[in-house]
Amino acid sequence: MGSAFTLTLANIFMWKWERQTILPKLDSHEIYGRYIDDVFFTCNQSEDKVKELLEAANNFHPNIKLEYKIEQQWYSGIIGHHKPSAQPTVVSFLSDHPRHVFQNVIHTALTRAVRYSSSFEVFNNERRAIRLMFLYNRYPSNYINQQFQKFFADYMSSSSSPFIPMITNPSQFFALRQKLSTQPTAKQTQLATSAAAVHLIQNTQNVTQRNTNNMEATVKRNNNKFKNNLFVHVTHEARLKGLAREIHMIHDSFFKDTSYANIRLVVGHRIDPNIEFELSRKRPSLSLLKDPLEKNQNEIKPLTTATKTNEHC
Q1: How many separate domains does the chain show?
Q2: Where is the Helix-turn-helix domain positioned along the sequence (predicted)?
Q3: 311 in any annotated domain
């Protein structure tokens, strides 16, 4: 999908496809789900009937071809499916990123595996796949073990191996899963924050002047929280590892004994831009969209006129 509009177009096409081929022929109690062009559904009919349904859906448009797999055995739980075309790539350990980025990548992968694994056996399979994925991306084995041990620290038994940290029994896994299931995801937190902001705006339109004054005082106090802070952001580079410390030293050398000594300097890091995103330009620049010949002709015409005028003179 090279264009930014391709994903939207694919969703529009699949939305029409599923409503004209699959959904009308499924019973209301069946399960159906789709993510872009990947479809999952349950059907209580015979295998021949299911194949007829899929073949009819495959003939919906001449430019599409569906590949399907019918599972014969019922599994009462959630299993992880990895697409054959998916590449086991994450942020490479050799890339120039702050150290906490690699830690967050490992913890996020483990958290996702715990959330969607419904059994201890399924989670062990996912954990092994995650470990192999990080080894493939040049993560040191000792670093992976350290992050695994940090993630499982509260749930590991004393019999666990210090060299290969893992959860050893289902009770530990379900305790961890119960804890993580009650915590909101990043997307849920973002939606809750947006909903709270909308609710606050709607309420402020109907409150009294007293409540409005109280709210303004609260907002003012929150704004004063960072009144004495000075934020400086620099792009992270491994060769400039001590840059933040040097910035603090320069700040202290100039303002330590002055009236600005109470200002707290906070140095943050910006992650380097993704090189793939930088190289793939979503839209050409305005200069490239203009005809260069027309531009050159417009620049030459006044010079030609001036030359002719000089000749007549």
Answers
A1: 3
A2: 90-149
A3: no
Q: Which of 149, 181, 213 is the last residue of a domain?
A: 181
Q: Are 248 and 265 in contact (CB under 8 A)?
A: yes
Reference 91, options 73, 106, 76, 111; nearest CA is 106
Residue type, 38: D
Check: CB of residue 164 under 8 Å from CB of residue 145.
yes
The pLDDT tens digits of the residues spanning 199-243 come to 777 666 655 555 555 555 555 555 666 778 888 888 877 777 788
Domain hosting 238: range is 226-304
Q: Which residue has the tokens 């690699």?
A: 102
Flag whether 254 is in a domain: yes
Q: Establish if 312 belongs to a structural domain.
A: no
CA distances from 32 to 23, 28, 43, 106 (A): 8, 10, 9, 31
Q: How far is CA 299 from CA 65, 205, 289, in A?
A: 53, 57, 18
Helix (H, G, I), strand (E, B) or coil at 4: coil
Closest C-alpha to 127, from 137, 112, 138, 141: 112
Which are the contacts of 13, defined by CB distance < 8 A and separation ≥ 6? Answer: none
Q: Which tokens go with 29?
A: 């109690």
